[in-house]
Design a protein that fits this description.
The protein is 52% helix and 4% strand. With 108 residues, the protein is mostly helical.
Length: 108
């Protein structure tokens, strides 16, 4: 019986170790998690630093910001062509919409 228990424990440990790199790869680096980019003040370069955002998408974000008078909430980012729900969920911990007089690192 003890042999089987040890076998199950070893198999479980192997599964955890095998999936750890995939889980870690999905998480942004610690420095990125604590600092957010304010969608209402970000430059094209700031936006391009976000995962999956290239030059053209960054330009579209700025165009949307200008036409709409700024972002009221981060979910509006999905109104920009090229940003769907999957992309938004990946970006959500990295972005913010600061209210007037508030800095981007202060919350959403």
């Amino acid at each position: 019986m003890a042999k089987y228990m040890i076998g199950f424990v070893l198999v479980g440990a192997m599964v955890v170790l095998a999936t750890a790199p995939a889980v870690l790869a999905q998480q942004p680096p610690a420095a990125s998690r604590s600092a957010t980019i304010d969608l209402n003040s970000a430059s094209i370069a700031d936006l391009e630093s976000l995962p999956g955002i290239g030059r053209r998408t960054a330009e579209r974000i700025l165009e949307y910001r200008q036409k709409s008078g700024g972002f009221k909430k981060i979910e509006e980012l999905m109104n920009v062509k090229g940003i769907g729900e999957k992309s938004f969920l990946r970006l959500k911990p990295l972005i913010a919409v600061a209210s007037k007089g508030e800095k981007a690192g202060g919350g959403q």
